[in-house]
Each structure stands twice: as structure tokens, then as C-alpha cells.
Amino acid sequence: MDYVAARPAVGVLLRDWRQRRRMTQMDVALEAGVSARHLSFVETGRSAPSADMVKRLAEQLDVPLRERNELLLAAGYAPAFGQRDLDEPEMGPVREALDRVLAGHEPFPAVVVDRHWGMVAGNSAIPLLTAGVADHLLEPPVNVLRLTLHPEGMAPRIANLAEWRAHLLDRLGRQAVISGDPALSALYDELAKLPGAPEPSASPDPAAAEIAVPLRLRHGDGELSFISTYTTFGTAVDVTVAELSIEAFFPADAATAQALYSASS
User: Fold this and answer.
1) pLDDT value at position 263?
2) Which among 4, 7, 46, 144 has most CB atoms closer than 10 A?
3) pLDDT tens by residue, 128-169
């Protein structure tokens, strides 16, 4: 009973999400097909929204599925989105899809991460990135951002550490604000305190650097350069699936591609 009593009212939560999205009541009302007056009543607790109304508003506010369940609970309704462990039989098609994407991306590195950047799976090329990393950073649960920026992790091998660090922290900071997830905020604070790096050196390929921030990784006597993509399940209605992402690294130059093809042959 104490937990229920301490739960914020649904109107307060909806208002927080609206403000986080920098939308006015009129903006949300127009998108959701309700009156601004009714939305105001919902946010102030003068009107109790139906379950359908909560779902509609959450959809327009792009609230993550986990938090949509919280909104429904706060409004007195049952959660609408299930959450299964990835190893459950029903998740077989999801595991198969992930395995296909990871294997199909070889010999280039790709990794599956959860909402807090925990490593869920990786392909056979991931050890290329993690060579020389301290064992304690590779003990489960592995956080790929900590692994990347920690001084005992990949950081010493990243030729453009200052640039890559700024890119990752900016990305993480945006995620923390957009999601409202305190765990992401805590991770940001932790990683921001790690030792930084000198100002980035000039990119060996200035034209490519103007297109995307590369990951330039020292490798042997040379350097590997990657650009990355971030893929999610666009039609997920399960919380676990909605929170999975695939980070895939592609060669940013011909020399990197050749080096990885040669290493895999």
C-alpha cells in the first residue's frame, strides 16, 4: 500500500513527459485528438483519463513502453505491454533475428545492447575492438560505454579519444534527458568523471570526418577507422525487445575493410 500511495499521479507523469518533449498542451492535444482543456484537467488531476486516453497520449509523447506501463499503473489500469526474458521460447524469432544480423555483419564488429548499454550479444569481430582490455571490464554484466571510455578499457587504443568521448557522452546525455532514466544519468556522471584526452588530432581523411564521427582505433602498427549505425526493432510491443539495439561498425576507409577481410580469411 505504501508503494501505491507513493506513486506519482498519472497527470503529473504526463505533464513531466510533455515538458521533457518540449511540447505545449496545445501541441499534444492536437496530435492526440483531444481538447487542450481536457488535457489540462488530466494533468491537474481534475479528470481521470481512460486507459485508451493514457495510451494515446503516451504514443504522441513517444514514451518508452516500460514507462507507458508505469503511466497505466498510475492511472489505475493494468500494464499493456509484456516483458519476457530473451531466453524464453516465445523470444525465439527475436534471438534468431539478432543472430542473423550479427553473423551477417561479419567480418565487421557488431554488438547488441540493452537500454543501459549492457552488452547482450556480440559477433566474432568484437574481440578486435576489445583486445588488451582489462579482464574486470569484460566480466558480465559488461557495459559497452564503460568498456570504451575506461582507462583500462579501449580508451588507450582510441586515436581520437577526445572526439569519440565527446560524441558518446553527448549521445548518452541526450538519452538520459529524453528517457528520464536515472540509471542513464548515473552512468553519464560516472563516465564524465573518467580521465579525458588531449584535443583530437587531425583526421587522416578530412572529407570522411565531415560526414560522421569515426572511431579511430590503433591496431598493430596502423589504425582502423569505423563509422557506426544504431538499429532498433521498429514494431516492438514487448518491453525487452523495444529496449534492444544493435550497434554495427562499418569500415570508414578501404584500408580498414581490407584489414578486417584479411583477418577473417
Assistant:
1) 86
2) 144
3) 999 999 999 999 999 999 999 999 999 999 999 999 999 999
Residue 91 per-residue DSSP state: G
Cα separation, 214 vs 168, in Å, equals: 11
DSSP state letters, 101-153: HHHHHTTS-EEEE-TT-BEEEE-TTHHHHHTT--GGGGSSSPBHHHHHHSTTT
CB distance 227 to 249 below 8 Å: yes
Cα–Cα distance, 78 to 205 (Å, whole number): 54
CB 234 within 8 A of CB 241: no
Query: How many angstroms from the chain centroid is the CA of residue 106?
Result: 22
Sheet strands (E) in the chain: 110-113, 119-122, 215-219, 222-232, 245-251
pLDDT at 208: 45
The 10s digit of each residue's pLDDT in 51-85 is: 999 999 999 999 999 999 999 999 999 999 999 99
Residue 2, pLDDT score: 45
Torsion angle in degrees (nearest 10) through CA of 47, 52, 58, 61: -80
Query: What amino acid is encoded at 80 in this protein?
Result: A
Predicted TM-score of the model (pTM) = 0.86
- Are 75 and 49 in contact by the 8 Å Cβ rule? The answer is yes
Terminal alpha carbon distance of the chain: 62
